[in-house]
Amino acid sequence: MVKDWVRWHQDYETPDSSLSRRLVVVQEFLVRALTEAPAEPGGQRRLISLCAGDGRDVLPVLARHDSGRTVRAVLAELDPALAERARTTAGELNLPHVDVRTGDAGLIDTYLDAVPAHLVMTCGVFGNIGDEDARRTIAALPDLLVAGGIVIWTRGRGNGSADPSSRVRAHFAENGFKELAFTQPTDARFRVGMNRLVGDSSSARQPPRRLFAFA
Ligand SMILES: C[S@@+](CC[C@H](N)C(=O)[O-])C[C@H]1O[C@@H](n2cnc3c(N)ncnc32)[C@H](O)[C@@H]1O
Q1: Which CATH class is domain 7-197?
Q2: Gene3D superfamilies recorded for this chain (predicted)?
């Protein structure tokens, strides 16, 4: 059964929900990334958000912390209602350089024109795809980023004995990323990571077209 992602977003309306707490961390990481990510000589940056939802992690942060409107953001979201919400929010926040695409973020063709990016967000992705897809997606991130580019990601703790975020962190380490930050609250099941590409950017290389599909 296809999950109701509009309904999933309702947890954001409860201020002390795990999802709301996760949002605070993701936004804090993005604020930091905006000061630490590389930029073009003119100061411009490209950001890609995969499975962007209604964009509430990215859009308010750009409105507050990118006053020069230097970030060109592509938000890829499959659900038309959530994508439309993100478009409306971008308009309300006066963010003309935000391009919300109603499309499949598992296919890199959806945002290939924004590659190589300075920032990539994969929040709410790795917990919804298989480990092989997560491994393939992380292995392709050096193809999507400039050298020194930053990825912000999340992963749920789940109920098993092993914390699956360990595998995500290992995949990043194996693919030329240094961990800049990692949060794992003792009283919540979300994890948020921020990693910088310190290995070579391989944006001249052709990455696989299909990175993942939601399970
Ligand atoms: C767990 S939510 C995360 C939303 C947002 N990134 C956040 O953290 O608030 C997953 C989102 O991925 C979207 N989605 C699922 N499969 C997708 C795909 N193949 N391409 C783009 N978006 C997809 C869903 O509609 C949903 O909005």
Answers
A1: alpha beta
A2: Vaccinia Virus protein VP39
Domain boundaries, the chain: 7-197
**Which atom belonging to ligand 1 lies closest to the Cα atom of 121?**
6
Give the integer Cα–Cα distance in Å for 38 and 180. Answer: 14
Instruction: Give, for all 215 residues of the chain, the pLDDT tens digit.
Output: 679 999 999 999 999 999 999 999 999 999 999 999 999 999 999 999 999 999 999 999 999 999 999 999 999 999 999 999 999 999 999 999 999 999 999 999 999 999 999 999 999 999 999 999 999 999 999 999 999 999 999 999 988 889 999 999 999 999 999 999 999 999 999 999 999 999 877 655 678 899 999 99
CA of 21 from ligand 1 middle (Å) equals 18
Ligand 1 atom closest to Cα of residue 9: 9
Please tell me the distance between residue 125's alpha carbon and the centre of ligand 1 in angstroms: 7
Residue 124 Cα to ligand 1 middle (Å):
6
CA 171, 176, 178: angle at the middle one, nearest 5? 85
**Number of neighbouring beta carbons within 10 Å of residue 114:** 18
- Asked if 214 and 111 count as a contact pair (C-beta separation under 8 A), the reply is no
